């Protein structure tokens, strides 16, 4: 249907439906409705360009189906399957992710076409090689609940709409043209088929299953596809045979359906289920049992109208209103309904369950959404947020763990923390009796008492050492916040021992505060700060001490104890000065792979979540005018009414929730505290229609782009002198009125406070941390002798040590002078101090190595190609210096290779009796670091005639793997002088990886040649 046909058709339906048809992405003014309902304010194209990773297609609020075009699946900027920069479409699939940093979904794709049968989509460079079609944004139109586009190559007008569990397609072919549709079950965004089933039930109906492995390791999507007209012929393709098989199964399943020419649109509707084909049929029957496309479209848009009407604004520019309502729309893309109309759903254990008293949901991007999205839901969709919490607890029941980053009933393990905890805690602390508080506390405590993901160090040391666990700083501070949330629930439930335990853990962030630099930063197991500290160095998952960020981003993350953090700085003024300096730093991202760290204002990064609360911290030091200035600047510069209108990944509603709360003048610095910090409202009036029947309104008088500063405030007509407002006050209903001006004003006398020690009920005692000893030098290999100096990070501690491998006690030798080593030795030492618990034991291995007396050097090392990057090139001898790298990608000891293999030749100086040859490699797939595809060791007496000692081969993994070091070892058992180690990189990143198509990395450290002749 072209534009003129659409306008003609709409003229015959109700006025309300006509209003819903108005434009929202660069539409000519004559196509806009004269009276615009809220749906017309939504621009689904926002975020489809740049790095927003949103999709423009049709869905309903939190619906199971997201029916949208797929333009590409090649990596980072195609996580949603669509990017505004593209000019061709592969097809229209029924599941999509909104704003994520990883790709998946894209299930059950349909594509109408004309001409010869082509089974593959073709490429962007050569769309004619497949069924892909070119398109123009001029012929594309998106609204909430509706999408349309003209496929240029086939001259087909496509219109899409949806119900919660079904997608509805309308294809208008050229008059008299042959009409064909391909169903492609192989297609997906960043995943691979595990098992596909396609069955032709009749000339109208097709059913099947797409079971895939991607970000979600084992995703089930059952479907029912029905056409409003019979297909006259069909072909199926199982990857080997093309024919008229009525049922095919395997890892390749596609079908082409041919229809007689007709002037009437061809309609197709698809129902989904995670449970079964029968479930999909029930969903279709319950939600879309007719063939009235416009009725379904109007129903979908009425749902959006009702959902958007919960929060309304007045004043501001049209662009600001578009941004606001689109942001509200984006908060309702996820989480998604994950149960059938009969209540059945697939659990985390892949068994089928029935939800009795709630709607079950999936897709919890909690590292992002706990910060603002869930507090937004608590205000605008509280009953649904309750169901979100019930869904999380259900996932605990079926897997033994709360979700971290759950997708399609799969735990992806993406990101850090256990941030279901603040979402659940917030509901319990608000008195939500629909939540089983005892069961919830059991689940929260279980998350905190695990020993993986660095938690064993939290329990033993009170922080995570950077040399033992990736993301050590980020994990430490985020766990500390989650633990505060657990403590508050424990207090509410009268569990006072747990209250004290987790309150102490909530202060763990202080163990990583370095007063000499003014940053939260990494220290090792012995308490030694990380060397060569650069607060602007950005690390990725597993590539350093921080998660998608740096010291500037994480130093301010102690939302549970802001006043405690201020004390560490020495007072309010010093803390304010530190905040000021963040905005004036150079706006640089030094990590080419850190695509998330965007939207930089100095070292504030709005395109990623760790910075989101920082501008509001000025309120805690009586400098709210600076909050007002910066949040208005962020809203003005980091959001726009364009395809690239988001400064970073939308992240399942978090970026949008930040905007909408901030536009109303509110933000939850501590999301589980029930407290919103006041910023600077954008609109003259913003209203929340509360679920309890009341409403809360924020009025900003004399507001403008210049008048960003609050002059005075009133609540329900009475002077209001606090720079915060509580959830209970908001939900009681009323009006908060601000007078705005262009100069900072002293308008409040009570700032927010967040002080763990001050607020604790009882006596809070924390045990002192006695760090283990450490060696002053990292040298572990020596020629004839070595002097080892030990040191303690804690003044007044005594060091006891042993050299025979036994555990040191207070009866062991006391360290006073450097230890003189002349042979291979295992040194163990610990610190002791009166009235402190003894430190953990330090263990260090020192090796006396073969030494070439003539050349006065260790075995000579030659690399065919140097490390690929200066960042990952610790020096020529790093592979053979006896100093081992840690699990931390950026500890400065790993040699990184990308695009070429590691080939190292070692000259022992003379023929030696060589046993095993070992090499350590790092596995960190999130940071693009893979183990070698093959590991070979060769030997030669003359350095020319090489013989193969052995090969180890390893397949490229099909999903992300746990971070850690892996030892590759091959027996040589020969007398020889020369050794060659060859490690082949994994090559291009695989399809399931967000960086698909880029070169992987190989990280190696320490080639160890075992031999009695070498080690003495």
From TrEMBL:
This is Alpha-1 2-mannosidase. Residues 874-985 form the F5/8 type C domain. Residues 1-26 form the signal peptide. Its cofactor is Ca(2+). Residues 783-843 form the GH29D-like beta-sandwich domain. It comes from Persicobacter psychrovividus. Keywords: Calcium, Plasmid, Signal. Residues 42-273 form the Glycosyl hydrolase family 92 N-terminal domain. The keyword Signal applies. Monomer. The keyword Calcium applies. It comes from the Bacteria. Residues 280-742 form the Glycosyl hydrolase family domain.
């Amino acid at each position: 249907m072209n534009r003129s046909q659409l306008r003609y058709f709409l003229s015959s339906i109700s006025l309300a439906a006509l209003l819903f048809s108005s434009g929202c992405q660069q539409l000519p003014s004559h196509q806009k409705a004269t009276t615009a309902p809220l749906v017309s304010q939504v621009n689904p194209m926002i975020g489809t360009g740049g790095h927003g990773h949103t999709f423009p297609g049709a869905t309903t609020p939190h619906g199971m189906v997201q029916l949208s075009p797929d333009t590409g699946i090649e990596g980072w900027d195609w996580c949603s399957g669509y990017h505004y920069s593209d000019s061709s479409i592969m097809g229209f699939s029924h599941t999509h992710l909104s704003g994520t940093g990883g790709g998946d979904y894209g299930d059950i794709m349909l594509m109408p076409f004309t001409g010869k049968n082509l089974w593959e989509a073709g490429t962007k460079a050569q769309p004619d090689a497949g069924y892909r079609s070119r398109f123009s944004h001029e012929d594309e139109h998106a609204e909430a609940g509706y999408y349309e586009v003209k496929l240029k190559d086939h001259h087909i007008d496509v219109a899409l709409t949806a119900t919660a569990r079904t997608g509805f397609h309308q294809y208008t072919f050229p008059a008299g043209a042959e009409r064909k549709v391909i169903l492609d079950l192989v297609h997906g965004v960043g995943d691979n088929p595990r098992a596909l089933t396609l069955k032709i039930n009749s000339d109208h109906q097709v059913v099947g299953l797409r079971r895939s492995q991607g970000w979600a390791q084992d995703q089930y999507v059952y479907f029912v596809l029905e056409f409003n007209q019979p297909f006259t012929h069909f072909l199926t393709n199982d990857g080997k045979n093309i024919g008229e098989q009525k049922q095919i199964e395997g890892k390749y399943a596609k079908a082409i359906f041919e229809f007689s020419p007709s002037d009437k649109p061809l309609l197709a509707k698809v129902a989904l289920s995670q449970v079964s084909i029968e479930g999909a049929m029930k969903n279709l029957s319950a939600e879309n049992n007719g063939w009235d496309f416009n009725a379904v479209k109007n129903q979908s848009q009425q749902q959006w109208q009702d959902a958007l009407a919960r929060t309304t604004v007045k004043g501001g520019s049209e662009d600001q209103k578009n941004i606001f309502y689109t942001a509200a729309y984006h908060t309702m893309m996820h989480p998604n309904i994950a149960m059938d109309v009969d209540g059945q759903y697939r659990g985390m254990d892949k068994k089928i369950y029935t939800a009795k008293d709630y709607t079950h949901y999936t897709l919890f991007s909690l590292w992002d959404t706990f910060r603002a999205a869930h507090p937004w839901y608590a205000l605008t969709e509280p009953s649904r947020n309750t169901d979100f919490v019930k869904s999380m607890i259900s996932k605990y029941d079926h897997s033994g763990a709360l979700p971290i980053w759950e997708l399609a009933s799969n735990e992806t393990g993406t990101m850090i923390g256990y941030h279901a905890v603040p979402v659940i805690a917030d509901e319990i602390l608000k008195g939500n009796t629909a939540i089983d508080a005892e069961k919830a506390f059991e689940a929260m405590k279980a998350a905190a008492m695990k020993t993986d993901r660095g938690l064993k160090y939290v329990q033993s040391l009170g922080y995570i050492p950077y040399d033992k666990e990736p993301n050590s700083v980020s994990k430490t501070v985020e766990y500390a916040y989650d633990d505060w949330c657990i403590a508050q629930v424990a207090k509410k439930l009268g569990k006072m021992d747990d209250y004290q335990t987790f309150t102490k853990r909530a202060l763990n962030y202080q163990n990583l505060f370095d007063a000499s630099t003014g940053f939260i930063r990494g220290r090792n197991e012995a308490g030694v700060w990380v060397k060569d500290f650069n607060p602007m160095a950005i690390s990725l998952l597993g590539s350093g001490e921080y998660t998608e960020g740096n010291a500037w981003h994480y130093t301010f993350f102690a939302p549970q104890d802001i006043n405690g953090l201020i004390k560490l700085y020495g007072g309010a003024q010093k803390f304010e000065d530190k905040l000021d300096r963040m905005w004036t730093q150079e706006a640089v991202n030094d990590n080419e792979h850190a695509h998330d760290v965007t939207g930089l204002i100095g070292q504030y990064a709005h395109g990623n979540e760790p910075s989101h609360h920082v501008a509001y911290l000025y309120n805690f030091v009586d400098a709210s005018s600076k909050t007002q200035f910066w949040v208005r600047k962020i809203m003005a510069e980091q959001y726009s009414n364009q395809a690239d209108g988001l400064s970073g990944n939308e992240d399942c509603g978090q970026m949008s929730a930040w905007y909408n709360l901030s536009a109303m003048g509110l933000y939850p610095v501590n999301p589980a505290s029930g407290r919103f910090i006041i910023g600077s409202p954008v609109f003259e009036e913003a209203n929340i229609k509360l679920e309890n029947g009341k409403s809360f309104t924020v009025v900003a008088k004399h507001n403008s782009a210049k008048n960003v500063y609050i002059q005075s405030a009133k609540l329900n007509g009475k002077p209001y002198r606090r720079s915060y407002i509580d959830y209970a006050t908001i939900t009681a209903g009323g009006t908060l009125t601000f007078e705005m001006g262009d100069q900072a004003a002293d308008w409040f006398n009570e700032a927010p406070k967040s002080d763990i020690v001050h607020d604790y009920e009882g006596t809070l005692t924390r045990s002192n941390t006695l760090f283990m000893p450490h060696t002053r030098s990292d040298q572990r290999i020596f020629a004839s002798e070595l002097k080892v100096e030990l040191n303690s990070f804690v003044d007044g501690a005594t060091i006891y040590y042993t050299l025979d491998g036994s555990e040191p006690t207070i009866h062991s030798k006391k360290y006073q002078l450097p230890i003189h080593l002349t042979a291979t030795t295992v040194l163990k030492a610990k610190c002791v101090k009166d009235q402190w618990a003894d430190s953990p034991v330090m263990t260090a291995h020192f090796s006396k190595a073969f030494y070439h007396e003539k050349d006065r050097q260790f075995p000579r090392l030659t690399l065919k190609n140097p490390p690929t990057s200066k960042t990952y090139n610790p020096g020529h001898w790093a592979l053979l210096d006896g100093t081992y790298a840690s699990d931390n990608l950026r500890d400065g000891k790993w040699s990184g290779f990308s695009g070429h293999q590691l080939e190292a030749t070692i000259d022992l100086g003379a023929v030696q009796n060589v046993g095993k040859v070992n090499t350590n490699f790092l596995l960190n797939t999130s940071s693009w670091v893979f183990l070698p595809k093959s590991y070979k060791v060769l030997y030669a007496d003359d350095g020319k005639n090489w013989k193969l000692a052995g090969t180890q081969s390893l397949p490229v993994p099909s999903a992300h793997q746990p971070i850690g070091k892996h030892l590759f070892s091959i027996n040589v058992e020969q007398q020889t002088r020369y050794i060659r180690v060859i490690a082949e990189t994994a090559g291009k990143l695989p399809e399931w990886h967000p960086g698909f198509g880029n070169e992987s990395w190989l990280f190696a450290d320490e080639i160890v040649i075992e031999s009695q002749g070498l080690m003495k």
